[in-house]
Amino acid sequence: MLLDDVKKYYDKSYDLNCAETILYAANETYGLNLDKKALKTMAAFGGGMAIEETCGALTGALAVLGILFVKDRAHESDRIKELTKDFFEKFRAELSTDNCKRLKELYRNDEERCSNIVFAAAKILNEIIEKQVVPINNPNCLPFL
């Protein structure tokens, strides 16, 4: 399950930011087969893109939705737009904001870091994905498109 892999990758031994954690975990959970170069795309999104704006866990989750539900480009349908809006609405309902600075004020501490935020993002992401797909024989390799 995604949450288990998020807990694994958010461990201090991996030293990943929130956005990287979500993408690494989704790569493992959903068998995305992303290479190191693709995984590195989330490096700049941690800490609210280094300026404490939009939460990195949220941006990492949106990247996963794009990978899973876009065949070639966003404008091919309204699907990714609707999934993105759904994620934002659920994230804000759960945590009250998507602003990194505000989220840190509400949920971050030195011991747990932003784990509550990252775990909430993982739960919401998994819920959205599960509503979109029907598992086939291998639950680790779902038909996303």
Question: Quick recap of the structure?
Answer:
With 145 residues, this protein is mainly alpha-helical.
Overall average pLDDT: 93
Q: Count the strands?
A: 0
Which sheet architecture does the biggest sheet show? none
Class of secondary structure makeup: mainly alpha
- Which descriptor suits the 3D outline? globular
Output the radius of gyration. Answer: 14 Å
Quaternary structure type:
single chain
Q: What ranges have pLDDT less than 50 throughout 5 or more consecutive residues?
A: none
Number of domains: 1
Distance between the termini: 19 Å
Helix content: 55-70%
Percent strand equals: under 5%
Counting H and I runs of at least 4 residues, what is the number of helices?
8
Structure write-up:
This protein is mainly α. It has one domain (2-132). Helix content is 61%, strand content 0%. It contains 8 helices and no strands. It has helices spanning 2-9, 18-29, 36-39, 46-52, 56-69, 79-95, 100-107, 115-132. Helix 5 (56-69) packs parallel to helix 8 (115-132). It is globular, with a radius of gyration of 14 Å. The model has no long low-confidence stretch (mean pLDDT 93).
Which characteristics define this entry?
globular; 145 residues; 0% strand; mainly alpha
Give the SSE layout.
Elements: H1 2-9, H2 18-29, H3 36-39, H4 46-52, H5 56-69, H6 79-95, H7 100-107, H8 115-132
Helix pairs in contact: 1-2, 1-8, 2-5, 5-6, 5-8, 6-8
